[in-house]
Amino acid sequence: MSRTSPNISSDTAAPVAVTVGALPGSRKVYARPAERPDLRVPFREIALSDPSLEPVRVYDTSGPYTDDAAAIDLAAGAPCLRAPWLAERGLETVAGRAVRPEDNGGASGERLVPRCPAERTILRGRAGAPVTQLELARAGIVTPEMAFVAHRENLCREAAAAEAGARLADGERFGAAIPDFVTPEFVRDEVARGRAIIPANVNHPELEPMAIGRNFLVKINANIGNSAVTSSVAEEVEKMVWAIRWGADTVMDLSTGRNIHNIRSWIIRNSPVPIGTVPIYQALEKVGGDPLKLDWEVFKDTLIEQAEQGVDYMTIHAGVRLAHVPLTAHRVTGVVSRGGSIMARWCLAAHRESFLYERFEEICDILRAYDVSFSLGDGLRPGSVADANDAAQFAELETLGELTTIAWDKGCQVMIEGPGHVPMHKIEANMKKQLEACGEAPFYTLGPLTTDIAPGYDHITSGIGAAMIGWFGCAMLCYVTPKEHLGLPDRDDVKTGVITYKLAAHAADLAKGHPLARIRDDALSQARFAFRWEDQFNLSLDPDTARAFHDETLPKEAHKVAHFCSMCGPKFCSMKISQDIRAEVQAFAAAEEGMRDKAREFVEGGGALYVPAPGETGDPVT
Amino acid sequence: MSRTSPNISSDTAAPVAVTVGALPGSRKVYARPAERPDLRVPFREIALSDPSLEPVRVYDTSGPYTDDAAAIDLAAGAPCLRAPWLAERGLETVAGRAVRPEDNGGASGERLVPRCPAERTILRGRAGAPVTQLELARAGIVTPEMAFVAHRENLCREAAAAEAGARLADGERFGAAIPDFVTPEFVRDEVARGRAIIPANVNHPELEPMAIGRNFLVKINANIGNSAVTSSVAEEVEKMVWAIRWGADTVMDLSTGRNIHNIRSWIIRNSPVPIGTVPIYQALEKVGGDPLKLDWEVFKDTLIEQAEQGVDYMTIHAGVRLAHVPLTAHRVTGVVSRGGSIMARWCLAAHRESFLYERFEEICDILRAYDVSFSLGDGLRPGSVADANDAAQFAELETLGELTTIAWDKGCQVMIEGPGHVPMHKIEANMKKQLEACGEAPFYTLGPLTTDIAPGYDHITSGIGAAMIGWFGCAMLCYVTPKEHLGLPDRDDVKTGVITYKLAAHAADLAKGHPLARIRDDALSQARFAFRWEDQFNLSLDPDTARAFHDETLPKEAHKVAHFCSMCGPKFCSMKISQDIRAEVQAFAAAEEGMRDKAREFVEGGGALYVPAPGETGDPVT
Predict the structure, then answer these.
(1) Which of A209, A272, A551, A566 could form a disulfide with A145 if both were Cys (CB 3.0 to 4.6 A apart)?
(2) What's chain B's average pLDDT?
(3) B618: which chain A residues are within 8 Å (Cβ-Cβ)?
(4) CB contact under 8 A, B485 and A567
(5) Which band of pLDDT confidence, cut at 50, 70 and 90, is reported for residue B558?
(6) In A, which residues are within 8 Å of B447 by CB distance?
(7) ipTM surpassing 0.90, yes or no?
(8) Phi and psi, residue A257, nearest 5°
(9) Which residue of A has its CA nearest to B402?
(10) What per-residue confidence (pLDDT) applies to A229?
(11) Between A395, A571, A578, which is nearest B334 by CB?
């Protein structure tokens, strides 16, 4: 049952509470891999009402908040499970950059949100020694992060894999190389090749590591963040906890306005998932909102500030080059990326090449030192179906490919951001071009939205595109909420966006023939067929909504075992009738072996009627 | 503005009221094709706030209810626009079958809903003379229905077509043969070939004709209907009006329980869209709910009863043969079609071949006489991803192909129902197999749902599959609401289902490169880019929701012209910044022709920086 955490100590004004407690029918379990008994890999176990059935284990992003045994103390931050691993990595401890008033947009007095009091030692890699997961992987080192990821991706289902392998391996993978079983060495190899990243800043010890790559489960990102117009720190921290409760694999904090630094401190210190940011937003705040006042110094300062806080990946719009900007002049919707438009404006007004592009190697050096992964931003992504796959978009993508090579040479982990608004017939080309241009670096797309005509429903217009591009090979899908284009998402919108993207990512995993993806589908469908209503609710992505919808018309406890629902009523329930059919067919099969062969013969031959077993009737369905 | 119609006369107890009034910013218009000035083809015209822009015309399914000039009288029924056409068709007038108590499930006294008092002459075709649209098409006759459809599909946009043709023709059509311009002769030819149907019972004069076929706009169906457990006649009639208000192209009345006949009379007499039914449901009610008591006589009686009322298409599960039933024995979810399970149960219990299969030619003769189209039911569709594309499903599909040929020989219009639950990688095979097995008869699928794990969100799991199969060639998509698997949809669920399927169908049209489909996307995106908020709302599929979402955070009138929304706030609005960029780029372009060529040279050459026009700066974004 979800509930609200108790208030944290009164001397920290915000945030006060987040949603905690296990999901219905579920409990948190931790697995200790045989080869790495020091690791505690979290899963969620969904109990089934039929005692003959094993609980169903599912991938779990929700951190300590759904662990009924965990004490949640937001002021102290989440447990630092990576601290012992990081202690062995030969990192240097640094004093860290002092926080300045402009980091919080000059907020002071009552308008200044307090910083999260949880203090962490600030770490940084040394030159010449491997620090990033990519450098470590290339050095042949299987990090604890890689072992954790391998175990997490397998869902501890060795036995199920052996049993289910043949049954499930029927997907279409478009060149992806998904193994039947994920080993730590496989993870190392994928990271070393740049085909996967493990976003894991050395200053984010609270992180439960995860991988983004097309040979792993498809991941989803939820954006949170206030805007200058609305929302508070308490809301944003709760949005993070809420987003991971429903399955967000990473969270991007896109806050603008005041208190950016301090809000982020609460989010990172309490986040078990990688946190991404777009540093140019904060840099712009530091110069009073005028893109023309941006320069390398303020941007560099912001990178270091955020890297020291523990941001795991950063969107850098270094692909928006001066020469690309005129290519957008005849677009229906111009430049629709916030970061992209800021940089385009800067380039054009300053009559200069982008400083992000010119200083890219220096950016790499900074990000490498903390193992901040690049999310190379698609500043020129299409904002309407009219602009999809145009010259501006693909010119930038080529540049991102060039930058990927540089970042890899510098030892940095890289993923590539993608669109946007793309009609269905142009989606596959995006995936193919990205793989070619960017050397198979993971792709991370926003949707794409497959039509422009449904504001208010863009979680759906984009969920269609997201499922498809996930199938084609996209590694992470950035959610879109129902409020897209209309306003800042609230808590309900975040949930709707996350659930929509979870189902899209899962549909992609199924279509790729991901080993074991179908276990949950089958468990739910078996529960449905057997009228185990509670199991059907609990196995669903959103048990609360499923139960509420059912109970709108049939609220009584007795209806939780009823062999019908209000959709068809008792006489017309196909599942009920089908159970009767099954009993009859099985009785017949027992009486006469080979019935199915006969049936097949019948179909092929178009011949004589099938002769039933004697006495084979059933009660009418009442 | 929507409002509720006044109560109808008090001597008819139900229904009392439906939603009427134009959609926001819209008005109903009627076009008179030059070649057929007697036709009044309805459209919706969305006015734009920029006086230099033409209103946008959209396909309109909503009938008189959105025409502010129309007087709505539910007891009198909708206007009979087809009456003069039908009068010229040489049909015979029949007395009609007398209504019997069992037609309404034996309801009497207060429990008996009154029949709709609107009386219509009951018509029937004669043997030997063409009566169905298929027979007329084969005879070379372009019916008024065909001319109406042609004009409706073109959206009267001859000029726009000429202008936009090259820009838009970039889809992937998978063998569909969509013309740039739809002529009445094209419609006739498609109907004659069986590639399209115009469901149009001769006893449904209120119908505004529409076509279902893969060379036309993709259509959607909304299911309504009470179950034995819940819902009333007033709700059901309002659901029909509500569903077509948001864009349902056809409506299926799946009512079970009491009062089926009389509820249907209200629905058909007031419906401008084709009404579909599943006659076996009512037949089962007539025999007290016991599938084993079903026989040809009660089914035949039901066909005639419903055909005389004006049902436009009927789902007939004649493909569920005795020999197919054992093929479902090892399925995860058995038989999940209500009609399919009833017939499977009957076959197995009676140890006999399905009477629907054995009597199929007789069924054809009845349906032909009223031009009721077949919707050949997929009684064995998969109810879980585990069961997708299995032997039972495809054995039935082969049978449906065989039945299609028989029905065509008998002069009947035919479409084919399809699944169901299908993971993405198995969807295209469904479409291909259907086209092959059924001679290109239109396909009509339920979703398909691409995963089983999201009850409460199955409009989305299925919207993904629906968009894809629509793209591949499916002609009509049967909606799934958020309540699927959980309960009977209410009015809100109907709307959510319809909007989701409208956007899926539109995404499919876009991907097919349907001429002019993109006009609405472009108009909306242009409005978005120009901060014409009211236009953005009004051009969307659901203006009420789009406006409400926007107004949650920025309710003031002044915000309807603001150059930002609460999502990003004023400083971070990429559209705003992008407008500034555009102004600068255009100023530059005016100063120096060939700038874009230079930009391209730059990208290709990777060389010198672009030299801007003098004085090219802009105000900071504030």
Answers:
(1) A209
(2) 89
(3) 345, 349
(4) yes
(5) confident
(6) none
(7) yes
(8) 85, -160
(9) A606
(10) 52
(11) A578
